[in-house]
């Protein structure tokens, strides 16, 4: 397994891709294997958030139907 210093990260504060753990952890998302993957981080985060919200809504609906 490689360290995070050898991966790409997306900086949420600056919107920039960084190689290695340069920024504070609170500002970065990753790691990613490529610069291109890291650049897609905002899109990936939106997709995951939407999927989690859909799952939560489905669980809430199932609970309501079973009550």
Descriptive report:
This protein is an alpha+beta fold and 67 residues long. Helix content is 46%, strand content 18%. The chain is built from two helices and three strands, in the order βββαα. A hairpin with a 5-residue loop joins β1 and β2. The radius of gyration is 16 Å and the shape is elongated. The termini are far apart. The mean pLDDT is 92.
Write the layout of secondary structure elements.
Blueprint: E1 8-11, E2 17-19, E3 28-32, H1 35-39, H2 41-66
Antiparallel strand pairs: 1-2, 1-3
Average pLDDT, rounded to a whole number, is 92
Please provide the ordered H/E string of secondary-structure elements: EEEHH
How many extended strands?
Answer: 3
Strand order of the largest sheet: 2-1-3
Label the structural class: alpha+beta
N-to-C terminal Cα separation, in Å?
A: 47 Å
The main pleated sheet reads as:
3 strands, antiparallel
Q: Extract low-pLDDT stretches.
A: none
What is the share of helical residues?
40-55%
Bulk shape:
elongated
Q: In what range is the share of β-strand residues?
A: 15-25%
Helices, by number, come to 2
Radius of gyration: 16 Å
């Amino acid at each position: 397994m490689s360290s995070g210093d050898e991966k790409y990260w997306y900086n949420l504060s600056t919107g920039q891709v960084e190689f290695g753990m340069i920024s504070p952890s609170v500002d970065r998302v990753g790691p990613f294997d490529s610069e291109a993957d890291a650049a897609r981080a905002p899109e990936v985060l939106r997709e995951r958030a939407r999927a989690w919200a859909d799952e939560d809504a489905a669980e809430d609906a199932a609970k309501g139907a079973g009550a």
